[in-house]
Automatic annotation (TrEMBL):
<dbReference type="InterPro" id="IPR046053">
    <property type="entry name" value="DUF6011"/>
</dbReference>
<keyword id="KW-0479">Metal-binding</keyword>
<dbReference type="InterPro" id="IPR007527">
    <property type="entry name" value="Znf_SWIM"/>
</dbReference>
<keyword id="KW-0863">Zinc-finger</keyword>
<keyword id="KW-0862">Zinc</keyword>
<dbReference type="Pfam" id="PF19474">
    <property type="entry name" value="DUF6011"/>
</dbReference>
<feature type="domain" description="SWIM-type">
    <location>
        <begin position="73"/>
        <end position="112"/>
    </location>
</feature>
<protein>
    <submittedName>
        <fullName>DUF6011 domain-containing protein</fullName>
    </submittedName>
</protein>
Length: 113
């Protein structure tokens, strides 16, 4: 996710407000939206702890960007590939096999916020 960490956003990816602090621009979310995302209530029983951690890192790095209402563009762990992700499907290898991936969890967390 190093490639996504270098990206700076001028508007919040959740609400669209203008971001003013360097920390918010790097993350892609303002402090209020970041708090909503951190406290979002999502059922995590189908996910392994490392998937939960990876999903949170994906969001913190600003490596998941809304494309449409429930579809997101996500970046792979190494930053070399992008995937189309929805809360129930993803174009990554795991998603194409029909298993749940951390990209889907990140999308669920963002939508729950």
């Amino acid at each position: 996710m190093n490639a996504a960490a270098a990206t700076h956003h001028t508007n919040c990816l959740r609400c669209g407000r203008t971001l003013t602090s360097a920390k918010s621009m790097a993350a892609g979310y303002g402090p209020r939206c970041a708090r909503h995302i951190r406290t979002a209530q999502v059922d995590l029983t189908d996910y392994k702890p490392h998937q939960v951690q990876s999903a949170r890192e994906l969001i913190e790095d600003g490596a998941i960007v809304p494309l449409r209402s429930v579809i997101f563009i996500t970046v792979s762990t190494d930053g070399t590939e992008t995937y189309r992700t929805a809360p129930t499907a993803c174009t990554c290898k795991a998603g194409l096999k029909g298993t749940r991936c951390y990209h889907q969890l990140a999308a669920r967390l963002l939508l729950a916020a």
